[in-house]
């Protein structure tokens, strides 16, 4: 049957019908008073979502663009930075800092493990001359399904005193609690196609006053991504360049939906979907790639041993029209990833688990009890 696709990857994520319909409206002038009112509402709701009193800046870019903007606006060539890397996206930020001539020190962990906050603490405490200018990390490492301990790492950065903390929250913002002002996070980047429930194309950067002070002396060249220009425009409910007007319509609607649901309910829903998915995989005899104490709320990575990961994805797509994500880089063909981020409900999770059971049976995975996965997921939903 056509048009029955179910997108269960960590991005792009499913888009609510209300958001799609909002985007179908005729565009209006981006310098008009009417559009300025839309921007004002969006800006207020972005501050609510980010739990900050600072303006959240919106750029026309992916999450990678938002993170690059966050890095280049507050640092200078030759600055010493720490990049925590335990997956594809941690590695990407190190590649970006290398590209802009920063002195990059990588703190790594095995893919599938969380970054050890103690290693970062030791590195920061050893920096008695306060040469380290930033610590950059991915909160939810999408490639492996690992959630790093941002709160503890941030505490160590704050004890250092000089360094900024720059956070890739692309798949954690809108899925887990990130109280930006309470924790004093300096630069937080995210993207529309994840927890925001909007198609790709918008990036968001929250910036602290401490980071803005660093901006005054930062020397990396920039133009389109000069966040100072975005700050001035945002204060006037405008944009420095032409925005994707129809995506902004969608963002306006999505943020209204999120505000109606409430932050605590959003976080609880992602927690339930994560626990249910992981319980189902364990009940089906499928090894989880990330440990329970560091499980992403956006995506669950599964490392099957009795069936091929790519065959699982192929059957799920061809027979059930369900898209799962594959492994990246050295994990290609070794894992599959189930996204449960954004506009994903309990029904979606149960549908995926039931379809996966049928897929596993077709592929010869015998070490499971029929219905065990669905029962395990349903039990989590019933108890929470």
UniProtKB/TrEMBL annotation:
<dbReference type="InterPro" id="IPR024169">
    <property type="entry name" value="SP_NH2Trfase/AEP_transaminase"/>
</dbReference>
<keyword id="KW-0032">Aminotransferase</keyword>
<dbReference type="GO" id="GO:0008453">
    <property type="term" value="F:alanine-glyoxylate transaminase activity"/>
</dbReference>
<dbReference type="GO" id="GO:0004760">
    <property type="term" value="F:L-serine-pyruvate transaminase activity"/>
</dbReference>
<keyword id="KW-0663">Pyridoxal phosphate</keyword>
<dbReference type="InterPro" id="IPR020578">
    <property type="entry name" value="Aminotrans_V_PyrdxlP_BS"/>
</dbReference>
<keyword id="KW-0808">Transferase</keyword>
<feature type="binding site">
    <location>
        <position position="337"/>
    </location>
    <ligand>
        <name>substrate</name>
    </ligand>
</feature>
<dbReference type="InterPro" id="IPR015422">
    <property type="entry name" value="PyrdxlP-dep_Trfase_small"/>
</dbReference>
<comment type="similarity">
    <text>Belongs to the class-V pyridoxal-phosphate-dependent aminotransferase family.</text>
</comment>
<dbReference type="GO" id="GO:0019265">
    <property type="term" value="P:glycine biosynthetic process, by transamination of glyoxylate"/>
</dbReference>
<feature type="modified residue" description="N6-(pyridoxal phosphate)lysine">
    <location>
        <position position="194"/>
    </location>
</feature>
<protein>
    <submittedName>
        <fullName>Aminotransferase 4</fullName>
    </submittedName>
</protein>
<feature type="domain" description="Aminotransferase class V">
    <location>
        <begin position="27"/>
        <end position="329"/>
    </location>
</feature>
<dbReference type="InterPro" id="IPR000192">
    <property type="entry name" value="Aminotrans_V_dom"/>
</dbReference>
<dbReference type="InterPro" id="IPR015421">
    <property type="entry name" value="PyrdxlP-dep_Trfase_major"/>
</dbReference>
<dbReference type="InterPro" id="IPR015424">
    <property type="entry name" value="PyrdxlP-dep_Trfase"/>
</dbReference>
<dbReference type="Pfam" id="PF00266">
    <property type="entry name" value="Aminotran_5"/>
</dbReference>
